[in-house]
Structures are given as C-alpha cells and as structure tokens.
C-alpha cells in the first residue's frame, strides 16, 4: 500500500511537471524574444517528468499509472486559466470535472 501511495505522489508530480512543460512550450512560441530560455525550461520539465514516470512504471501497473496521467489535462487546463488567463468554456469545465472523477476512481482501484 505504501508503494502505491508513493507512486501516486510521484505520478502527481510528473503530470504536473508535464503540464508545466506544456505551459513553457506555449511561452516559448509566444514570447519569441526568449524562445531558447523558455524552450530549454520546457524540455527540462518534460525530462524530469519522463524520468519520474519511468520510475513509477517500473513499480505499478501501466493501466493504473496511465489513468492517473489524466491529471495532466486537469493541470494544463488550470494553468491555462490561471497563468495564461485563457477563457475556458463551461462545457470544458464539465469535461475537467468528469476527468477528475475518473482519475479519482482509477486512483482508488
């Protein structure tokens, strides 16, 4: 049980880093004056995310780990809303809620 909890914590971190990587890629392509810097940070975030994900995959079932990876969409939506000030339509928020419920159900399975 402790191994699964630790894996879940690492998965949350890796999916957050993956979403952060997406945000940084967006910054790289929007803010051309600092493209190299933002792009490098995005690659670093993705690199750490991938290393953490590989670590977790070596310890838990793929179907469980990949399901928890659905958090990436949730994190990316919140980052887009709060950091990029993107407008998120209500139907997309409903989708985020449904994905959240799915991830919770997978997490407890």
Model description:
There is one protein chain. By secondary structure, the protein is mostly helical. It contains 5 helices and no strands. It has helices at residues 2-30, 35-57, 62-68, 71-82, 90-107. The chain is flat, with a radius of gyration of 15 Å.
Keywords:
mainly alpha, 5 helices
SSE arrangement:
Layout (H helix, E strand, L loop, with lengths): L1 H29 L4 H23 L4 H7 L2 H12 L7 H18 L2
Helix pairs in contact: 1-2, 1-4, 4-5
Summarize the structure.
It is built from five helices and no strands. It has helices spanning 2-30, 35-57, 62-68, 71-82, 90-107.
Number of strands: 0
Q: Please trace the helix and strand order, writing H or E for each element.
A: HHHHH
Q: What count of structural domains?
A: 1
- % residues in beta strands: under 5%
Number of helix segments? 5
The global form is flat
Q: Estimate the helix proportion, in percent.
A: over 70%
Mean pLDDT: 92
């Amino acid at each position: 049980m402790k191994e699964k909890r630790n894996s879940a914590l690492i998965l949350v971190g890796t999916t957050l880093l993956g979403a952060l990587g997406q945000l940084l890629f967006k910054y790289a392509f929007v803010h051309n004056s600092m493209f190299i810097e933002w792009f490098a940070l995005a690659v670093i975030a993705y690199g750490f995310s991938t290393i953490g994900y590989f670590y977790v995959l070596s310890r838990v079932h793929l179907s469980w780990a990949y399901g928890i990876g659905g958090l990436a969409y949730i994190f990316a939506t919140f980052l887009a809303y709060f950091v990029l000030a993107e407008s998120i339509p209500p139907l997309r928020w409903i989708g985020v809620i449904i994905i959240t419920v799915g991830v919770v159900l997978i997490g407890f399975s």
